């Protein structure tokens, strides 16, 4: 009971209410304009039509199948890109040889706009599933690589001295000293990587166009001039992004409770 009435809980609730004020005002204004007739034409829809489309419209219900396939691509591509990004980032952060040989090329490659990779990937892998997975992996790779490399570099000299003083084995030093010290940076990298992987997945689906997915759903809705379905796709795109961010925070908070109080 005391937790519910605590000042910190009250401040958190107040921040959430303030955050919901702008979306609520937008929805009220949108509904009012649609009801008054101020919005008219084939592209003008009300929020009630948008809310009903995924459940009552035969085309709108396709968004759920598309969402499932997009999430599978995020899981597969994100896992591949994340593991590779962590491995390469750890190597560059811990080994001068790896840093000198790999880091300059990777830092140069990340300057290329993300969606500029799609023509090259389609030339290599075609217009099928392999390109979408590869693009998702690439979207996830760079944030985790950069965060891991930076986290490994930022390990304090005192921790290094502790490892040397205790004559810890390299593996023990990595697991007990280096990795925990780098976790705050890696956590931020994972949060960015999840959002980047989700946007990359939808972007690849939208650009390539074939198959199912939220991006393909948006492309089809655009071609049909179905603004209600376009709005459904955009809302799901935003909602999944928020959910992935919350999932990342909750997972790291559960596995590493000492990170909860870190910014």
Describe what is shown at a glance.
This protein has helices spanning 7-36, 47-56, 62-94, 96-109, 118-125, 129-153, 157-165, 170-208, 214-223, 227-255. With 263 residues, the protein is mostly helical.
Description:
Helices cover 79% and strands 0% of the residues. The protein is mainly alpha-helical. The chain has two domains: 40 residues; 207 residues, MetI-like (MetI-like fold). Helix 5 crosses helix 6. The protein is globular. The two termini are 27 Å apart. The N terminus is likely disordered.
Q: Please trace the helix and strand order, writing H or E for each element.
A: HHHHHHHHHH
* Total count of domains: 2
Shape: globular
Query: Which strand-content bin applies to the residues?
Result: under 5%
Which structural class should the secondary elements be placed in?
mainly alpha
CATH homologous group name of the largest domain: MetI-like
